[in-house]
Amino acid sequence: MKFLDEAKVxxxxxxxxxxxxxxxxxxxxxxxxxxxxxxxxxxDVIAEAxxxxxxxxxxxxxxxxxxKNGQGGMGKDRHGAxxxxxxxxxxxxxxxxDEDGATLIVDLTAPGQRVVLARGGNGGFGNAHFKTSTNxxxxxxxPGQPGEELTIRLRLKLIADAGIVGLPNAGKxxxxxxxxxxxxxxxxxxxxxxxxxxxxxxxxxxxFVLADIPGLIEGAHEGVGLGDRFLGHVERCRVLLHxxxxxxxHAGEAYKTVRAELDAYGQGxxxxxxxxxxxxxxxxxxxxxxxxVACLKRAAKKxxxxxxxxxxxxxxxxxxxxxxxxxxxxxxxADERLVPAAAWRP
Length: 346
Ligand SMILES: Nc1nc2c(ncn2[C@@H]2O[C@H](COP(=O)(O)OP(=O)(O)OP(=O)(O)O)[C@@H](O)[C@H]2O)c(=O)[nH]1
Ligand SMILES: [Mg+2]
Hints:
This protein starts with 5 loop residues before the first strand and ends in a 16-residue tail after the last helix. α3 runs parallel beside α4. The protein contains five helices and 14 strands. β12, α3 (251-265) and β13 form a beta-alpha-beta unit. It has a six-stranded mixed sheet with strand order 10-11-9-12-13-14, sandwiched between helices. Strands 3-1-8-5-6 form a five-stranded mixed sheet, with no helix packed on it. The protein has a three-stranded mixed sheet with strand order 4-2-7, with no helix packed on it. It is 17% helix and 23% strand. The chain has helices spanning 58-61, 172-179, 251-265, 286-300, 315-330; strands at residues 6-12, 45-50, 64-66, 86-91, 94-98, 104-108, 114-118, 149-156, 162-166, 197-203, 206-212, 239-245, 273-279, 305-306. The protein is of the alpha/beta class. Bound molecules: guanosine-5'-triphosphate and magnesium ion. Magnesium ion binds at residues 172-173, 184, 192-193, 212.
């Protein structure tokens, strides 16, 4: 399945049906009176988070969504049919913003969560509605109300408990493949991974979701390399695993480069709990590891784990450290960035 994490769509709810002007006319019945029915309500445009989707690719192929209009009222007191709603199915973790992307309308973080984005117009009253003791034959009816139209932006931010960051070739995908059933592409050239990948990791009978994102390089916040837009997918993570390639020239510099990009991205990434690991310990000799660890420790101001994603050395310890943070955070409160749908109107 192709991956797409941003889309812009146009939506329009249905117009309400018009009310009807009609009078009862039957042989031998005089003064039959008004019997024009009301119009039906236009359909709503609804967004719903569903399980089993992890891309917005559907919205590349269709960008216009219109709910059906309500039918007009009819004679003999017949009410027009309501227009059918239209439901936009989006993956869990999708944020819906207004057209300029500045205002968050809703953050759909739980499966089944729904929000009405555009409400269908109400149907107009038919003339039967307007009869009174003084006006026995009203000759007017209400028109239906028009639907709403707006352009919205969908932005998928994957929901993972932990995210792996690091320079290209640090071994992020190798690590994900080693600890989960995910099978990301692995190769010894930079930018092997072009899209975020998720995997479920099991540690001591407990599970968490780990995300592997494309590598960051210096200047990613200005668009160098693949840019830093994929960092959106680790925004919701409770902990970051920062992998540093042990075979690189200077582990401390590599660490600082990635940290600088996290700082430049903002969105609270720099404040997240970070676990640092020096990878590829199998490929360098003991003296070199010692030196790299010292560099890394000075830069990160904490003790790094020394691991090898290939032969599994140290991986279990890293996973235990990750799950400890994840479980601690899970005990906390729910995502307070959620905007209640009722608080927002277009
Ligand atoms: N010797 C050794 N090689 C490793 C280890 N981990 C990864 N590699 C190798 O490093 C290369 C890059 O690994 P990837 O997992 O593709 O790196 P990545 O961080 O996902 O890279 P991008 O997706 O390009 O950002 C591959 O050739 C791996 O086989 C390790 O622990 N030891
Ligand atoms: Mg990769």
